[in-house]
Each structure stands twice: as structure tokens, then as C-alpha cells.
Amino acid sequence: MTSLRLYNTLTRQKEELRPLQPGAVRIYSCGPTVYRYVHVGNLRTFMLPDLLRRSLEYLGYHTEQVMNITDVGHLTDDTFDRGEDKMLVSARLESKSPEEIAAYYTDAFMQDAALVNIRAADHYPRATRYIPKMIDLISILIAKGHAYEVGGTVYYDIASFPSYGRLSRNTTDKLLTGSRGEVDPRKRHPGDFTLWKAAGEHRLQVWPSPWGDGFPGWHIECSAMSMSLLGDRFDIHTGGADNVFPHHEAELAQSEGATGRRVVNYWMHGGLLLLAGSRMAKSAGNFFRATELVDQGFDPLAFRYLALQAKYRTKLNFSTEGLAGADRALKQLRERVADWAARGDAGPDAHEAEAYEARFRAAIADDLDLPAAMALVAEVVRADLTATAKAQLLRRWDAVLGLDLDRAAPRRELPGGAAALLAARDKARAAKDFQASDRLRDELAAMGVAVTDTAEGQRWRVASRK
Predict the structure, then answer these.
(1) Closest residue by Cα to residue 242 from 220, 275, 273, 286
(2) Exposed, middle or buried by CB within 10 Å (0-12, 13-18, 19+), for 430?
(3) DSSP code for 452
(4) What gap in Å lies between CA 402 and CA 334, rounded to an integer?
(5) CB under 8 Å to 130, separation ≥6 — which residues?
(6) Where does 211-275 have alpha helices with state H?
(7) Where are the alpha helices (DSSP H) in 272-317?
(8) What CA–CA distances, in Å, run from 460 to 299, 342, 411, 426?
């Protein structure tokens, strides 16, 4: 079993992964708030735990992943506990119940995630089904002096948790400086956050509690669901860079405040996806859904191919030009794998193939260095290996990459007479009659057959008809 080094946001350094249970890694991933379609920026974030699990399993570990579904309590201004609940906003705009909104957009999320080969998590807890667990957790925090209630709303007292801010590197002074608008006068400190919010009139989603009817804060949901399913100590917590503060900072304070000890060993965060230099976001309206990529004629896994070119912690610029390049490269790679697999040749290059395999394992074990792994893919394509060895390596690595390399693009049928011209050109090239070879290439091009010469021989494709 290969050991891994992962970047821990909490310590700001790579650390050797030491699972609490040898050989098994338990992961909690922040999932979608199901009030609208997810976009490809969200999918890049959800791709992080997918790549993590695939890499861990490739290296011999067993994994268990929990990804929550937020169907209540996520306010439009979550940093300062202000605004409306996003679920209720969508319910009003679409004239549906919150339950209908949640069910519809949860199904859409599952479909979009499958389009980019994000494997399903082992558990998908819905926040609304864990309200009693949240109430129990809030009660513990009140009893331990970490929370207080005012008028039916319960707040977390950040002053009671001296290490508050260590995940995001925020301080109470910074929080004071960052306060916008009118501060809730019921809070002891502007940075205190809501655990339970008293319900206003006519609110659609309301639950009874010891503090009166209300609904949970966004942050308490993940503490309750993660510890309910994974216990009060687990290995890895993942999310987007935008989750570090306030969400994960609050979650860390809640979980450790309630248990009195460290709950999460490693915090991993994925970089944002940018469109024209700005963060892709639903609120900004500058986003693409995975289905829109399909509508534009792209293979949705071209987006996955594009994402693999950048380290997961870095920002990634998205453009249709970049996606088009990834789409072409992916299709070409699949065609080559299909060609190599069909040849079935063998040769004495097992030792060299093993060296590539060792380098691939080393790349994914080094904080999921997928760009290095993709560079190895390009090396193997050019390498002096047998076709069989190339196909076997790339197919094996696809367990991590998730690019469906066995799915070759269907070849269009050759027009009449083209097969004879290809055979004649093959003979001309073998005889080094390049004048005849070029003439035959031009004849084939006029028929809509594009021919490319490679080290393995000529390759052809039939141009699509518009």
C-alpha cells in the first residue's frame, strides 16, 4: 500500500496521510445546496473528492464518502447570517414547495455529476432529515458554554473557542473590520454565527425546538451529519476554497466545541473555476451547466480532461476554446487506445511499463498531482512501447482519470473507393514514393477522409458532414 502526502489547509503544508483505521479512509464532502442547477465550477469542487477516492483506491485503500445535500438553512448572505433562505427563494420564484425544489435539483445534480464521471458517494444525507441531531448538538454547545439563546435564536459564541479562525487565518479583529451593514444587536460579537434561527411569520420550513419554532443554521448541518455518519473523529473533509470561511471555520468550532477534541484530521479545498477572470457563480449568472456543454457539441468529459491539467488547489480559467482543445485531445486519445488495443501485439517492454506505473503512482500519491499524471499519459503515447503495453497502461490509469478511454469515438463509414486509396497510399509510403503518397492524400481529402501519418502508420477519420 503506497503512502500519500496531502495538503492540509489547517496546517498549510503537505502531510503524510495516516488514516485513523489502517487501510481505510473516511471522507466528508460538502455537497450542493439544491435550490438551482449546479454549474461546472461546482462540479470541479465535487471532482476533488472523486479524484481523492479514485487515487486512494488505486493505491490500495478502502474509502467511505459522505456528501451532504443542503435542503434548508443556507441564507443568501451566509457570512453575516442575513438574507433569505435560498431554498425558499427558489420555491417562491418557481411556485413550488421547498420539497419539490429539493427533489428536482437533487436529481439534476446527480445527473450532472454522472456526466463528468463523478462517482456516487456512499451516503447522501439530506439536512432536513437530521434536524433532531442538530438540536441535540446545539443543546450540547449551550451546556458547554459555547452557545447562547436570545429570543428563540441560538448563536455560537466565538469568544468561547480561542482557536476560532485558525483554519481560515481570520482573527476577531479582522472579523470586526469585515462586518458590513448593521450588526445584529443580539449578538455578543459581530462574528458570532447562528446555530438555530427563530422562524418568522409564514415561513414554509419550520421545526419545533427547545427554543421555539425555527430552522437550523447552515453550518450546524454539516457538523451534525458528518459526526452522525462518520463518528466524532474522521480522516478528511473536502470542499471548495470558498467554503473555508465562514462555513468550515464555523463547522470546526462547532464540532470541536461539542466534543472537546479534534474531529477532522485533514482539510482539503479545491481551487475556484474562473470565467473571464471572475469566479463562476450562480449569483453572478456567469456559469455553464454540464448539459449546456453537451448541447454545444462537447463531450462532457472534455471538461474533466481540462480540469486534470491543473492542480486541484489552484484556480482554473475556463473558456470554450480551452474546452474545445480538451475535447479534441480526449477523442484522439480514445482513438489511439482503441487502435493499440485492437493490435494485440506483445513485446519485451514489461520493465519499462512498470517504471511508468511507478511514476504514475508517485504522482497521485504526491497530493493528487494529476497534471504530472497527465504528462505521463502524453509520454506513454509517444513512448517506444508496444501497442498492447500502451493500451494496458492507459486503461489501468483511467480508473483514476475517469476519462472513459475505452469509449472510442465511432468511426464513420468510409466513402466508396476510399479503402482502396488508403491501401494504395500505404504501399506508396512503404516504397517511399512520397509524390504518389501526397497525391493519394489529396484525393482522400477531397472525399472527406483526413489522413495523418504517425510513427505507427497512417491514421484516418471521416470528416463530419454539416
Answers:
(1) 273
(2) exposed
(3) E
(4) 12
(5) 221, 224, 225, 228
(6) 218-230, 249-259
(7) 290-295, 301-307
(8) 21, 15, 9, 12
Closest CA to 109 of 293, 312, 300, 290: 290
CA atoms within 13 A on the CB side of 412: 13
CA–CA distance, 367 with 341 (Å, rounded to integer) = 31
Strand boundaries in 119-176, DSSP class E: 147-150, 153-156
Question: What is the rounded CA–CA span in Å between residue 3 and residue 423?
Answer: 51
Helix, strand, coil proportions of the chain in percent (round to 5)? 45, 20, 35
Which of 121-125, 208-212, 341-345 is the least confident region? 341-345
C-alpha cell at 10: 489547517
Q: What is the pTM of this model?
A: 0.85
The predicted-structure confidence for 410-439, as pLDDT tens digits, reads as follows 556 778 888 888 888 988 888 888 888 889
pLDDT digits (tens, 9 = 90+) for 268-282: 999 999 987 777 766
Q: What does 137-153 look like in DSSP terms, one character per residue?
A: HHHHHHHTTSEEEETTE
Beta-bridge partner residues of 196: 154, 216
Calculate the alpha carbon distances from 28 to 55, 57, 63, 149, 153 in Å.
Answer: 16, 16, 11, 29, 28
Q: How is residue 353 written as a grid cell?
A: 511499463
Give yes or no for a contact between 181 and 172, defined as CB atoms under 8 angstroms apart: no
DSSP secondary structure string for all residues of 66-107: EE-BB-S--EEETTTTEEEEHHHHHHHHHT--HHHHHHHHHH
Q: Left, alpha or beta for 235 (phi > 0: left; psi -120 to 50: alpha)?
A: alpha
Three cell numbers written together for 266: 485533514
Cis check: omega of the bond before 246, within 30 degrees of 0: yes
- Residue 155 contacts residue 195 (beta carbons within 8 Å): yes
Please give the domain boundaries of the chain with CATH numbers for all domains: 5-270 (3.40.50.620), 290-401 (no CATH), 418-462 (no CATH)
Cell numbers describing residue 373:
499524471
466 vs 451: CA distance, rounded Å: 19
β-sheet bridge partners, residue 163: none
CA triple 256-260-266, angle to 5 deg: 40
Asked whether 14 and 6 are in contact (CB, 8 A), the reply is yes
Q: What is the pLDDT of residue 285?
A: 62
**CA pair distance 205, 155, nearest whole angstrom:** 20
Specify the amino acid at residue 250: A
